[in-house]
Amino acid sequence: MTHASQTPLEKITVKTVKPTEYLSNVHPVWCPGCGHFFILRALTKALAWLKLPKEQIGLVSGIGCSSRLPAYLNVYGFHGVHGRALALASGLKANRPDLTVLVAGGDGDGYSIGGNHFIHACRRNMDITYIVMDNEVYGMTKGQPSPTTPAEWQSKLTPQGTGVARFNPMGIALAAGASFIARGFSGDPNGLTKLMTEAIQHKGFSLIEIKSPCVTFRPEEKAWQKSMRSLNVSPSSNPAEAAKSIYSSDGFDTGIFYQADLPVYEPTNTPCENPADVLAEIEKELNV
Amino acid sequence: MTHASQTPLEKITVKTVKPTEYLSNVHPVWCPGCGHFFILRALTKALAWLKLPKEQIGLVSGIGCSSRLPAYLNVYGFHGVHGRALALASGLKANRPDLTVLVAGGDGDGYSIGGNHFIHACRRNMDITYIVMDNEVYGMTKGQPSPTTPAEWQSKLTPQGTGVARFNPMGIALAAGASFIARGFSGDPNGLTKLMTEAIQHKGFSLIEIKSPCVTFRPEEKAWQKSMRSLNVSPSSNPAEAAKSIYSSDGFDTGIFYQADLPVYEPTNTPCENPADVLAEIEKELNV
Amino acid sequence: MIQPVSATQDNLAISVSGSGGTGAVTVGLILLEAIAKAGFYGVMTRSFGPQIRGGESAVMLNLSDHPIETLAEFSHIHLALDWLKFERFSDEIPLTQDSLVIYDNSREKPPGLVENSGAKLIGIGLQNAVKTIKGSRMNMFALGILTQQIGLDLTFIEAALKRTLGKKGDDVISTSLEAIQAGMRMIPDSHYEKLSHWHPTQKPRWNISGNEACGLGALRGGLKLAAAYPITPATDIVEYLAPRIEKLGGRVLIAEDELAAMNMVIGGSFGGLPSMTATSGPGFSLMTEAMGLAIASETPALVVTVMRGGPSTGIPTKSEQTDLNQVLYGFHGEAPHVVIAPLNVQEMVTISQWSLGLAEALQTLVVEVSDQHLGQSRVIIDPIPPVDFNLKRLRPPATTSDYQRYELTQEAVSPIAWPGTPDTQYTADGLEHTETGKPSSMAKEHQQQLTKRAQKITQHNYGEHWAKVTETLNATVLVITWGSSYEAVRIAVEALNQQGADISLLGLRLLMPLQTEQIQAVAKDKTVIVIEQNASGQLFHYLLSDNAIPRNSQSIAEAGPILFKPSTVQTALIHCLEGLK
Amino acid sequence: MIQPVSATQDNLAISVSGSGGTGAVTVGLILLEAIAKAGFYGVMTRSFGPQIRGGESAVMLNLSDHPIETLAEFSHIHLALDWLKFERFSDEIPLTQDSLVIYDNSREKPPGLVENSGAKLIGIGLQNAVKTIKGSRMNMFALGILTQQIGLDLTFIEAALKRTLGKKGDDVISTSLEAIQAGMRMIPDSHYEKLSHWHPTQKPRWNISGNEACGLGALRGGLKLAAAYPITPATDIVEYLAPRIEKLGGRVLIAEDELAAMNMVIGGSFGGLPSMTATSGPGFSLMTEAMGLAIASETPALVVTVMRGGPSTGIPTKSEQTDLNQVLYGFHGEAPHVVIAPLNVQEMVTISQWSLGLAEALQTLVVEVSDQHLGQSRVIIDPIPPVDFNLKRLRPPATTSDYQRYELTQEAVSPIAWPGTPDTQYTADGLEHTETGKPSSMAKEHQQQLTKRAQKITQHNYGEHWAKVTETLNATVLVITWGSSYEAVRIAVEALNQQGADISLLGLRLLMPLQTEQIQAVAKDKTVIVIEQNASGQLFHYLLSDNAIPRNSQSIAEAGPILFKPSTVQTALIHCLEGLK
Ligand SMILES: Cc1ncc(C[n+]2csc(CCOP(=O)(O)OP(=O)(O)O)c2C)c(N)n1
Ligand SMILES: Cc1ncc(C[n+]2csc(CCOP(=O)(O)OP(=O)(O)O)c2C)c(N)n1
Ligand code: SF4
Ligand code: SF4
Ligand SMILES: [Mg+2]
Ligand SMILES: [Mg+2]
User: Fold this and answer.
1) Is B119 an 8 Å CB contact of chain C?
2) C52 close to ligand 4 (CB < 6 Angstrom)
């Protein structure tokens, strides 16, 4: 695999609101050097850039190193159970379309145990932004292979490697119906900030699949810093074309692969002015 | 949508073994006219064509009208719980690679509750054939929308339609790593028999997505008989190409969309000649 | 020795069976509504063969001039549209020599078990009749026959017909009416003209199923989100809600599976609005992890579970009170929550509203337990007046600074902020946490939060709804039961008491937290007998586990799916009381 | 009044703490192995801060010249590589005036709680020492100091070092050895030279963790498939199996989630070969639906659950006996199955083998319950001799015609065919079924199969392993406990008995089916006290629920995550006994 066509990663500067205002006073439990730190930083920058009021944000996660994210932000957060963040967030968005709903988690949380909610959240295409902090390993449980781990990677659980090909989260998201699909890299916080702002602004379900090295259980991933580069094609809104660019990517391009204006699922949310009357109407149906 | 390019559906005749030998004496609970009857018939024909010994077949299903299939066949069957057939079958195949393992179920069972096992079974690419009897509805529970139901279809549960786009099971299978992907139609039992024989013979995970009308809760599906036709391109082994043909299909083509020779996951299965000695070796590691 | 009372109550039991498409169920629906319009009460249950469609089905109606929810002891009139697989229903449609069986004599003969029952048999030419009226259906003739047999005024049938089949258009109505009238003439003598002896009421009444009642109660309680995955016999609840909740500013979310449904409920509720799901055993099993999250994160959530035969896929279409152990104990870790079971359809509206309110006020999981019988029975009841339980979420005061989501308070309920409110941001967590919500694995904080979560539930004053206690003067025996067994047990106990027995009855609604002291007070100096419909005596052992009942208490426990009838309960009670002597 | 015995047993307790990367755990591992090589016994537990890496961690060793599994009452020697967040461990590493604390005086001062403990403090220049030997690490100096303090022969340390760090190459070994020797000279006076008074054994022994012991037992039982999804603290079981099971003709399947894992186990077992999974509370919750399928379809399946603090995600890295309710009752429908809990690491090998055998022979779900403490403790034990339980699947006779998978038999166990065998094809089903396996919703068949599934379990003769009963002559009190609480309770009871108390002890292994009559026999005429590590007294209530213990029995129940120590149990027991007077 060659990484010749390096495009310089883009810059973003935050002017108006201080990103640190979005931080809580809880210190991350992450290992020093963990890629997830940079994702946290990029996210605070993106929120600041968009000037989103802290109290208008609902940030939902599952379980994993990555899923610890909500506690580190001074927003309304929910650190739920492993793999179910997207479902929880869908309930939140359904009841509270006024909130900006973000979901964060790992490759294990989202693509392994959470796989079913992943495809159905894509299909529903609610206005939610999904940030996957993909380190190709289960960090929290100390180093087991995930669905994005290469087949050869050896661990205690898989002394000869998994023997199973990694799969293609962006391809799955596309087939399932997500309307914004991007890849980012934690080692490129500015590019990431930009992707995040675009994803949050996009109306519909946005997936940002972020490569984020686990320095403890996958130290070799530090080399990603050298191989990641910006995508040199612009986002397609045609699924067949996007499929082609997703399938032919070597996994090291960052950028938006697909963005389309698809119907967004927004369950009815018209407040009821006169519930007593409406209830009486409903009860009338029962009369003999 | 036009259905102009009708290719005549292919014929298959069974000579050697009697398909009825594969039937059990349990009578199907299906409604008269249900598409699932024809899938049962095609399956017995395919098994007969392949001359597979009945006792060498393991047929696993979940819950649904479609999932009742195993009881109707005189093979080793498992009618498990809703949505988990592929996982159960993976365990069976891992322990018993000598058996021909088939999985059958509905669109609800496989794509809704079973979605996570679907993508991971594709990814694992074990030598299993997955027969989805897709009627775009939950038949067994009397007519609720499934992930393949069109957004406009109205039901008691969705009086104004689901408002959610149907998703693309073949596209998902492709992105997830399945190595044989086909669409069939219950109204074309011969074409279906042929697809089934090819899928069973294919080494790796085969998906046959079969359109099968639910005459009771989706009577309008009877019209499929007029619109289904054979695919006029030959199977691709290139994912990007296959993606294109899958994404550009109008949903009425039948045939093999993708077939590739991908690594098949086969967990070790070397019988141990001298377990006592091996155990003693293993216990020796514990010695102080 | 006490003798069982005659199983004949002042009721009228009618059943109709037939193969798929014959329309037995429609006959039942119209008849029930007509009976209601005539000023009476009734209950209707259905039974299906294993086929999806095209298989045999039956309806059983039990009618009376006072509210009634139990199954009849035997059918006064059984009308067989045909005899397809009638054996399947023989448990549910008992025939005796007091039964009248009407059947189509142009087809098969009655099966042996019908002939042997001693019932009076009348064969008629139903299939031929259909040919006489163009576009008519056999079941409408049957309806006419039944109308005539029980002496029901045609105007009520006509009104019920219009209501039930009105959508099908005027032609269908008029053809049907013609067939009904023809049917009325087919057997002119009436054999069970009971209605004329009954006292019709002028009061308004409702025609409602248990599942509808459950949905209505939740709407009254302010439900804003129902997230669910379809499952028999709970789907009807959400199907009832779907077209109605939107008018009240709420919504239904169809989940990809039960794991999603439960998490959607938690997310919706975290958003500040009352949220619920409805499921049955298999789905409940899939939800327990997330229910534990609701408990640990103190997020209000209502789960209605409609029990069916178990274990595993079991018997999806039939009733059994067999999931009690799970609804109480199906969670890992210490998971105090609230479990409530209504005793009949009539109270389902109010108990469901109460359940949702308790979830909101106590910020925890409330499981409301129904079953296939309660849920899918259709009954005529007096309208249920509205109640105000005044059960709301505790919000932080507007001037909060240093807001702590999991603050230790006197009532053990911590204020919960509304997302969108400035300065009260917090992270809800299923990891053990400090008062602020920060993850903690320290023993002190674990114990503090464990205690808080338990105390808020035990300290709450549940008022009178915890049970329905009917005390008899000088009672020496206390019968305890729950859920859909209650009505049959109540009638059995009343009958025994009329014959001089001294039995008190306790129908337990609040299963968790168990009101041990109150139960002990009622049980004092009495022999306790616990009656329930499952094989192992789950309620019995549960009551023993907290010493709520004496050590020598007796258990009457029988697996489903055949429901208790007053007579079977009486016999079992008499047997049990004899054994104690 | 009985006085608590001095908490000082004939043990030697050493703890080491430090921030991430300082290598405290390595010190513990080498020391434990060296102590074993020297002919002694010991147990080592670990504790981590919430950080993944880079956070603080500690090891606690309790050493003796006889088998030992409990935590020490206090640390004889605590070595602090630094003081980072030491407060976090203060519950787990109690210091008294009899403790010796050694710390690096080139860094921060000891925290207040250490100074206030009255422990003797020795500060040394660890950081400077490292500079004296190129490539050396601080923890090896610490190891040297400890070696010297307890009077351990260097040869044992050297051998243990080679075994533990051998993979890192000769250079690391020689540098480490140099550092150890330098460390030995740093504090020349030995303060705890206990070893010389102890009697070393020459017997072979094993160095094993509970999770490894569990895996080994399953391998002995013929395990062929382990399917699992990682979860703390159960992952080690599968990590132990992964490289070993293949040599025995088996395999590990990594599942996408726990729902898959459990279904894989069922599929693998349907294929005819012993199959298991390992999980913890949250994963167990996700598996209950499929476990119900194993029960209903009568497919053998072993589930090992390693409990951690709950509810929900709870406290993943710490121990609590808090999932008993769930492992007994977490299923919908009547779901009789087998639940077994080993009492200590020593018996884990045999009990795990037995558990797998019971699943095979009874064709049902067996849940083996461990916890974080049992699972992740590393102990030195005598090798466990092999046993043959002779527990196998019942196969249909070779000449079977008209094979019925769910045949009603005398023993209530139906023959199960091997897929691949001609003429015995069947469909396994979680729907209720007839003897042939055909779906059925009839009451008769439901009750027949319910009864069969219950009877096969209750009728089995479980032999002596159901409990470990230690009866004391003239005992007036019976203490009942289970799982990882057993060792601390045993020592407490023995100590009280030495002082004249008359207490019998029952360590309950077979939790389901509950051996009520046997328990009643042991409990006869005694006051019963039930001790367990959870907040609500789950075992206590469970025993009451079947009248296995008298109504006035006492409960000592305390939530985790701090483990019981013999002294805390003693105090609680004395308090409880006083209260009874
Ligand atoms: C139901 C359940 N199963 C398993 C676990 C254990 N578990 C916690 S986090 C995790 C994987 C985390 O991996 P990932 O999502 O990739 O996050 P990372 O730690 O790598 O950031 C697992 C398996 C759990 N908490 N709950
Ligand atoms: C855990 C669980 N949830 C829900 C159900 C109820 N249920 C049974 S079959 C089914 C859907 C069946 O649809 P599909 O798989 O498409 O099969 P079809 O009947 O259409 O052939 C559902 C929701 C169940 N049995 N178990
Ligand atoms: S284990 Fe890996 S993913 Fe987790 S905090 Fe450490 S470096 Fe990050
Ligand atoms: S309900 Fe639909 S899918 Fe089910 S048997 Fe009837 S026609 Fe077939
Ligand atoms: Mg990860
Ligand atoms: Mg379907």
Assistant:
1) no
2) yes
Q: Do D503 and D537 fall within a single domain?
A: yes
Let me know if residue D31 belongs to a domain: yes
Instruction: Output the CA torsion sign for D447, D450, D455, D458.
Output: negative
**One domain, residues D17 and D164:** yes
| Structural domain that includes position C479 | 464-580
D135 and D262 both lie in a single domain: no
What digits encode the pLDDT tens for the residues A42-59? 999 999 999 999 999 999
> Which of B142, B162, B172, B218 should one mutate to test binding to chain C, selecting the residue with the greatest count of C CBs within 10 A?
B142
Residue with CA closest to ligand 3 atom 6: A31
Residue nearest to atom 6 of ligand 4 (CA): B31
Q: C342 and C479 in one domain?
A: no
DSSP string for residues in A104-139:
EEEHIIIIIITHHHHHHHHHHT-SEEEEEEE-SSBT
φ, ψ dihedrals at A129, nearest 5°: -110, 125
Does residue D404 form part of some domain? no
Q: How confident is the model at residue C4 (pLDDT cuts 50, 70, 90)?
A: very low
Q: Mark whether D187 and D214 lie in a shared domain.
A: no
The residues of chain D scoring below 50 in pLDDT are 1-8
**Smallest Cα–Cα separation from A210: which of A103, A62, A79?**
A103
Q: What is the ipTM of this complex?
A: 0.97
> What residues contact D399, with CB distance under 8 A and at least 6 apart?
none
User: How large is the angle between the packed helices D258-270 and B85-95, nearest 10 degrees?
Assistant: 50
Question: Are residue D337 and residue D247 in the same domain, yes or no?
Answer: yes
The hierarchical CATH code for the domain A9-284 is 3.40.50.970
Q: How far apart are CA B113 and CA B186, in angstroms?
A: 23
Q: A157, D242 in Cβ contact below 8 A?
A: yes
Count of domains forming chain C: 3
Please say if the pLDDT value at position C9 is more than 80: no
Q: Is the CB of B31 under 6 A from ligand 4?
A: yes
Asked if C55's CB is within 8 angstroms of B156's CB, the reply is no
To test the ligand 1 pocket, which listed residue (A140, A166, A212) has its Cβ within 8 A of the most ligand atoms? A140
**What's this model's pTM, rounded to 2 decimal places?**
0.97
Do both D158 and D240 map to the same domain? no
Q: Domain limits of chain A?
A: 9-284
C150 and C188 assigned to the same domain = yes
CATH of residue D84: 3.40.920.10
pLDDT at B7 exceeding the cut of 60: no
User: D touches which chains (3+ CB pairs under 8 A)?
Assistant: A, B, C
Residue-wise pLDDT tens digits, C346-400: 999 999 999 999 999 999 999 999 999 999 999 999 999 999 999 999 999 987 7
Cα C179 to Cα C157: distance, rounded to the nearest angstrom? 12
Cα–ligand 4 centroid distance for B147 (angstroms): 17
pLDDT tens digits along A164-223: 999 999 999 999 999 999 999 999 999 999 999 999 999 999 999 999 999 999 999 999
Of B63, B138, B159, the CB nearest to C243: B159
For B157, the closest of C20, C242, C313 (CB atoms) is C242
- End residue of a domain, out of D381, D401, D420: D381
Q: Is A83 on the interface with D (CB under 8 A)?
A: yes
